Amino acid sequence: MKKILLMFFLSIYVLLAKEIVITKYIENKPVICVNFTGPEEINKILHMDFTVLDHFKVNYGDCNNTTTKIDINYDNNSHILKVNYVKNNQTQLIKLYKSRSYAYFPFLVHRAVYDINEYFNMPSAKFLIRKVVYSLLIAPKESNIYFADYTLSYKKLLVSGGLNIFPKWADKNQKEIFFTKMEKLPVLYMYNIYTGKMKKILSTQGMLIVSDINKNGNILLTLAPNGSPDIYLLKNRQLIKITNYQGIDVNGKFWGKDKIAFVSDRYGTPYVFVKNLKTGIVTRVLYHGKNQVGMDTFKNQMVISSRETDNAFGNNTFNLFLVNQNDNSLKRLTFTGQNMFPNFSVDGNSIMFIKRENFFSKIGIIRLNENKVFYYKLPKILQSFDW
Amino acid sequence: MNKKFLLTAIGALLIVTGCSKQPNLENAQNEQNATAQTEQTQNLENGSVNTQNANVETQTLQGTTVTAANKDFAKKLSSIVVYFDFDKYNIRKDQWPKVEKLAETIKSNPSNYTVRIEGNCDEWGTEEYNYALGLKRANSVKKALIQLGVDPKKLTVISYGELNPVCTAHAKWCWRKNRRDNFTYLP
Known about the structure:
The complex is a heterodimer.
Chain A: H1 2-27, E1 31-37, H2 40-53, E2 57-60, E3 68-75, E4 80-87, E5 90-98, H3 105-119, E6 132-139, E7 142-148, E8 155-159, E9 164-169, E10 176-182, E11 186-192, E12 198-203, E13 208-213, E14 219-223, E15 230-235, E16 238-241, E17 249-255, E18 259-264, E19 271-276, E20 282-284, E21 291-298, E22 301-307, E23 318-324, E24 329-332, E25 338-344, E26 350-357, E27 360-367, E28 372-378, E29 382-386
Parallel strand pairs in A: 1-2, 1-3
Antiparallel strand pairs in A: 3-4, 4-5, 6-7, 6-29, 7-8, 9-10, 10-11, 11-12, 13-14, 14-15, 15-16, 17-18, 18-19, 19-20, 21-22, 22-23, 23-24, 25-26, 26-27, 27-28
Chain B: H1 2-19, H2 26-44, H3 68-79, E1 82-83, H4 96-107, E2 114-120, H5 127-147, E3 155-161, H6 172-178, E4 180-186
Parallel strand pairs in B: 2-3
Antiparallel strand pairs in B: 1-4, 2-4
Helix pairs in contact in B: 4-5
């Protein structure tokens, strides 16, 4: 009994201690002064990066009471972004970022802010330097695949002509993507974004989508060779059928070491289920909401978009929930609006999602450790995206 | 004095930058790669031309000719649209007569062709789920047509998910129009 009590008080102490540390961390953000000279739109991206990063208390231009100063200058002629780290009026470090074209500046700014964050040994913020691929419907039966930075300010057309859908990064270095092209049959291609080289991987009846790729290079696909969409695992060039249901099973995601999560309509409406690969048992994950269509995983964490109201259309509420299979915890991430298509960042610290409000869409970025959400406008509705 | 200060500053700068971490120019490098690629393409255009092997071989096409009758048949097919309820792929009672009419239309035209059943969805839900839903909608009608005596070899299915809307307003009446199966004549 004494042991149990001791454990109880110890757990409370640990919890409180953690809470205290977090509070301390938020109160003691490093103060830096940022002094920028150059075009205003570059300054805008710089502000956005520091705001979304939320690791620093930034004074812009007012450096009187700040010992750490970052002088940033963009030269329009040479397309060079120069970052000068100054402490007590002494230059500590100079970094230069160069691109061939002016339009590429968002990537230079993101890299510079990422490096500043690293310089001060703050928690990783890889989302800043991740490239985004997305497909956009431009006309009925016609969608293009574009390449962008996380703010979607930079845009470059990668694939066009017909229906090009479901782009997904194929490697961690973000050099190649998988995407599906609707030809006579759906065809899965691998596309190198630097060389433009396209390689045909697979073609089948029905549907063909890459849903997830793990660090070992194993791929989860949705295929429907007999008209019924199911989850398949492509491992060592072997295709293994994971689900076998006559209805709809889609959106397979690796979850932890031996589980695969997916969306299925086996209860009449779509909900998130998980299959344990060791036991073969399929269970529902979150008993909440009227349906759950959007879902993503990162290691043991899962984010689910759950519809909480019962209208078929109109003022429905979709909210995001974070499930952790380590401690079976559940956390509500959003409270109002239509929050859908959640997508974890590569380090799992952030979740990108799309929020619909009235007739507009916004991109939301949840910074999990900072407990904050940031939004920015989305000019058009994306078909799908990966970052 | 100014000269001395300048020299000291340059010296300090060299020491500092020399000792510090080197700038990571990965992205900038990427941009250079992308530009280099364009230059490579430009280089390809600087070659010469040789028409020695350009001997064209002529062959008559053996494929099916689209006759006026087939055109009428294609029109009849495209005029039939089967609608579905929200998030459902079963055929509604009120849509059954359309499926029966479609079966009769196909059976009364015995020539060599394929009918492509195209499943479509409204904009709600993720695209991957909608893509699957569109496929199930197309397959529902395919199964019904086979039950009504249509040769399965004449039927093929495809899903466009939410990527083939006939209506793009964000309204209930519009979404209803997008939850549908279309039928296309393929010679």
